[in-house]
Amino acid sequence: VEFRLFNGTRFICDEVGEGRLIYGSNWPAQSMGMSQGMLLLAGISQQQRAAIAGGNFLRLLDIVKKEGGRL
After folding, report:
1. In the Cβ-directed half-sphere of 14, how many Cα atoms lie within 13 Å?
2. Is 27 helix (H, G, I), strand (E, B) or coil?
3. Which of 44, 53, 69, 70 places its Cα 20 to 30 Å from the Cα of 61?
4. Sequence-distant (≥ 6) Cβ neighbours of residue 24 within 8 angstroms
5. Please, which residues have CB within 8 angstroms of residue 48's CB and are 6 or more apart in sequence?
6. pTM for the complete prediction?
7. What is the spatial distance between Cα 17 and Cα 5, in angstroms, rounded to a whole number?
8. How much is the pLDDT for 38?
9. Torsion over CA of 31, 36, 37 and 41, rounded to 10 degrees?
10. Mean pLDDT across the stretch 51-71?
11. Rounded CA gap, 60 and 71, in Å?
12. Three-class secondary structure of residue 31 per DSSP
């Protein structure tokens, strides 16, 4: 889901938590730099940004590995 409202990422972090978000760039339809910039300027903590930018995806992959390749 694409969310571009002002402070949208921060709003979603506050509402559902950064642990439920995974970064996606929408490339090639959109510049990767644009979506990276939106994440960098989202007004969230470095810890929240790190979770969204890759930590949550790595955690999800670890769950899949533990489940033998199934979610």
Report:
1. 8
2. coil
3. 44
4. 35
5. 13, 18
6. 0.78
7. 17
8. 84
9. 150
10. 89
11. 9
12. coil
Per-residue pLDDT reduced to its tens digit, 2-42: 556 668 889 999 999 999 999 888 888 888 888 888 888 89
Q: How far apart are CA 10 and CA 45, in angstroms?
A: 9
Residue written as tokens 């910039």? 37
Which residue in the block uniquely carries the two structure tokens 């002002």? 6
Residue the block writes with tokens 């899949």? 64
For residue 29, report the phi and psi dihedrals to the nearest 5 degrees: -65, -25
* CA–CA separation, 32 and 68 (whole Å): 32
DSSP assignment letter at 53: I
Q: For residues 71 and 6, what is the distance between their CA atoms, to the nearest angstrom?
A: 33
- Write out the DSSP string of 46-67: HHHHHIIIIIHHHHHHHHHHHT
